[in-house]
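re: that chain from earlier
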Amino acid sequence: MATSTDTEHRDHHHDDHRNHNHHHYGRPALPRPQQQHHYAYKTVAKKQRSSSAGGKKKSTGNRRRRLTHVLAGIVLGLFFGYTFGGSYGRFRLYAGCGGGGSDDSRPGMLRPLQPLQQSSQAHDEDNSGARPVAGHAGGAGGPPESLLFVGVMTANRYLATRAAAVHGTWARRVPGRVMFYSSETSVLPPGAADLPLVRLPTVDDSYPPQKKSFLMLQHMWDNYGGAYEWFMRADDDVYVRPDRLAALLRSVDSRKPVFIGQAGRGNQEEFGLLSLEYDENFCMGGPGVIMSRETLARVVPHIKHCLKNLFTTHEDVELGRCVQKYAGVSCTWSYEMQTILYHNSSGRDAFTGNLKQKEVHRAITLHPVKQHTHMYRIHNYMKGLELQEIHQKKILLHRDVRSMIDQLNSAHPRPSIEFRLTGDSKQLFASRPGSPNYLGDPDLLGLPPGLNKYRPRKVADVIKWDFISKAWYSDTDANPRRRIDSYTKEGLDDVVREVMDLINKFSKQRGRVIDFKEIFYGYQRVNPLFGVDYMLDMLLMYKKYRGKKMTVPVRRHAYLQQQFTGYEVREVLDGSEVKHVTQQQDVEAYDNDDDDTAGSPSRDIADNGMVRVQDVPPAKRRPDGRAKTVHFVLPLFNRLATFARFVDNYESVCLANDERVTLTVVPFGQATADGAVATVTQLAGRHPNARLTVLPDPGVPFARAAALHAGAVHAAGRPPDDLLFFVDVDMLWTAATLDRVRLNTVRGRTAYFPIVYSEYDPVVVYGRAEGSPNHFLVNQDTGYWRQYGFGIVSAYATDLAAAGGLNTSIRGWGNEDVDLYEKFVRSRTAASVFRAADPDLVHVYHPVECDAGLPEPKARMCANTRFETYGNVDQFANIIYRNRDAVYDFAAGRLRNGSTAAVARPPQMQPASVSSAPRPRV
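^ sequence. v structure.
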């Protein structure tokens, strides 16, 4: 009720204090003047029925005279219109009732329905009243729409924040015009020159804002009253979904007096203090108030009188009183308005959390959005919902097309992509994958929903189902029974919400509603070609409120499929999209290519319906894509043989390909420093232009955080040449890793923490100790992804400093990487974290040795890391099975010996050999 243009504490107090509880919903009785008129009409009708036959003859004569007068009036009107108007095309359509409050109109006069261009011109020429700034705020391009005019009440101190957020989001999509109304001393902020601002004369930004609200309605009618069907009064902290609002307004007759909003009578503390009659209410201002043209026309002539007779300090209460008195209508008595015009009572915390709520999805307006940055967040979320609806319509159209093609192809079957309506017509799906005009694969997207779209040809191709109950059960995971992941829970919630919306789509007509309670159990699988399949057993609550009322718990099985809609690839560099060729060149390239066998790999991927990472064509590099210098920072303690392997990989990948890189080695220990200098000197002799540095021994015990800090200070150049890449001596990489480092690390936006692939013990995997024959063979038998490893990171030095830098007080093994990762996650000023698996960044196996002097938490972390590097569960199960007799003997010995079992050692076992061929990279 209190507008957002007022001070924050007043705004917050009135929005949350009075809008929380509303009473006395229901259809009000007729007002007393209407009742008296109603009874008078009955009395007159009774007298007419009791009149004599002579009266009937007199009534017949009156009807003849009236008909004659009407015909004469029509003839005279046509004559004068043709004589003075010039042509029939100049006739104006008159609609509405009442004056506009202007000098040339009086209450009760009809006003012409002017086109938008004329009203805009009149508005621009009006220099005596309110002073508009800037221009149209509606949609761009095409003829202007005349459905809705929105007046947003704001204040000078909110122009740069809330008003700018509204103008940059939903206001641009309103089917009509949006204007912002503020005090006469308001000034447009920098960067908002196109904000359509109206400075209301004699109006300030003080509280209460009754004068601002009523004079805004006066200005709306005077300048736009004949151009729009509906008029909305809104605050600058409300989000509106224009598409749904337009659908609602087009279903209501704007020629009638209508007053739409969330009805209220005040809370319990204010009940009886708002000077409202027993049958009166008001539309609360926060979620928005909508009037038809007829309502506004009846109210505007009496605005001055309403301003002089205020009973409360609540602007929306006084507006409702004025509308009730002079338009003869009250706010809509509908419980549905509580959900579609939604007010959240959380105050400043409203809509700052999870938006995947049924209240948010059902609403037309959301109020209040006190933090203007969340206005953009809500807008992006709503656009995502609209995109989902478009994808769903696309799927339905593909199914219709596929069904018709199957019927027309029944005589001469052919692939859908070759279908022609007639023999000499063009193919319906002429455009090929990758073309802007490509419609999609009808054979893939057009299949009707079902769980048997994919038919495996052998047992190994069968897609397994995961079981869902209170936990998640899967035989493909190392932990068969685990808690339901957050992303899986979110997907289930989305599916359940859509199912319930589908079930309740026609609930209102049937007088019932069905609520979701819980999922008893279910099954889920991911089909890479078609989508995600679900089989759910749900507990629902059936509530019937029409006729014989009842509430009954019911169970329902749902068989669902969330279908995939194809993939899109968008390449960005430092936040800007990379375009290699123009759109026209793309179109010409595909339209002129008639050879189906010669095409890009991406076309083959689309035709096959499956994206394979190993077949994706390498991204074309922009000339400045390799311009970023990557500064390698390497801490080193002993491990000189491993360092030699690192240097060989650095030379073959970076120096041999003229990559823009530098290497800074931070050794600990004089022997390590001497060995590193010798190796780097040999490398410098082969590549004189290489930028290689070995820092002197700091003379302190090894500490990785201190080493990275010293290397970063030495290696980083001035911005923008300050891209740091922290690595370990056990890492191997390819040129693709450097490309990902450059693309995924964006100054001020993202710090890249790649998920590296770590090798298992080669004795367990290959049965030999010489190491892996192919370090870049990535599958579940040769290694694992280090999901909780954060030691490898690339970030700009400026972002590293903004996050708080490395904690150089951490000594010994581990924890410095987790500390840095948490700093980036928690910091609001530093870049955000980007995590992704990098199949070309491999941690080569080496035995993990844990220092006996480590503290208990670090010792446990080290031990867990050592256990993970041995092998996977299947490999150890095979080892135990092959040596089961020795295991049984060892277990029996422990049971017999009792106390000595603690010092007994397990028997030596032979590792399992790799019997199957390596799996392809994924």
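The radius of gyration is 37 Å.
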